[in-house]
Amino acid sequence: MTSPRLAAMAASTRTEAQARAERQEQSTMTNAKHTKGPWKYALNVGPTKALIVEADGSTVVECSNRVHDSRFEANARLIAAAPELLAALTTLADVAGRIGPFNLLARDISDLSIAYGMARAVIAKAEGRAP
Length: 131
Hints:
Layout: H1 4-31, E1 40-46, E2 49-53, E3 59-64, H2 70-80, H3 82-99, H4 106-126
Antiparallel strand pairs: 1-2, 2-3
């Protein structure tokens, strides 16, 4: 059974790690030379056309295909997830680089757990398995 003090310490560490991950994600997006994310895709533009748009609806890119098939939507999802994929993988790489092979600290475990969660969530999104 976990003591209340240990649970509070774990929650505090997780909160700090989440804040670091969010700062890293914001830094990645702020310093990026590409259009800031998140992006969304819209397939109802035409029978063989999709738009990748910013949160405000501005078009980032227009995609077209000869036919509307399952790959067409999958490609649109993947393109739309690109900024979040970059942020998640940058965070994961930074945490892994900081840890090194023998320098694992409690803070690193928490950061790695959050970075792993970010990466899995955006991978699921790119594959169409997430909201």
